[in-house]
What we know:
The protein is of the alpha+beta class.
Amino acid sequence: MTTTKTETAIQVDLAKCTRCGFCAEVCPSGIIRVDVNGPSLIAPKACIKCGHCVAVCPHAAMDHNRNPLAKQVKRQASLTVSAEMAEQFLRSRRSIRAYKPEKVSQEKILRLLNVARLAPSGGNSQGVSFLVLSDAAVLNQISAAVVDWLEEQINQGVAWTKPYAGMAKIYRETGYDVVLRGAPHLLLSLAATGNPIGRDNGRYALTYAELFATSLGLGSCWAGFFEMAAFSNYQPLLDLIGAPEGKTITGAIMLGVPKHQYQLLVERNPLDVLFK
Ligand SMILES: Cc1cc2nc3c(=O)[nH]c(=O)nc-3n(C[C@H](O)[C@H](O)[C@H](O)COP(=O)(O)O)c2cc1C
């Protein structure tokens, strides 16, 4: 099979293929046709290289040049979590605002990000990159810049800022880091500037990171004030970040080792749902 970079091609082991049609049924673009001769692509250009056709095949008969069989990992049934375990896992994630001073190893951050990058993305576009800031002096400057920005909003009478005037005051009077909570790392998601779904994709990836962090003994918290300042292109802040050329910040979470363990699972507002 010879292909150029942009061409999409599937390769089917016809001895293994039972013509069950699963690959066609799961294809998001509906571009696989299965007949007596096996599966074939009817509009290869519409492929989003999601790898579903390869992953769903019960006989490992399908290969795909843009999402190869050799790169897909066998799902281990023994690692499947029960509904009870999943519920406790999801409910155990809390926003962490008290961190141990120690840094997280680069190896652990890479493990975290290697799961985060697997999050869903619009049209499987992916395109999320990460920037990990760990220099304590820079993080302090970032918090100071965000408070400067927040005070500018407060002084201009921006409506949503009202409840937060107290936070800026606390920062000024006590030095308590109301922005990054003294976290040893700030994890940013980035996307190509102008990517219309870059913000969404980045947030899904950071949500994966936030959830998986708990399994690595880590804690995180969305850095919402930082995000608002960054999203409004507050230049003093952007200068401190130094994002690579052509990339825009799409999300931010604090990261570190939690100082405390929570003993109880949270309750929220009652479920509000309609079935029609
Ligand atoms: C988009 C977003 C922005 C947030 N920004 C901040 C923030 O700037 N500072 C902070 O301490 N918590 C922030 N949070 C955390 C929320 O306050 C928290 O999720 C909420 O209180 C529920 O608590 P829990 O996450 O511990 O369950 C943010 C959460 C989200 C989803």
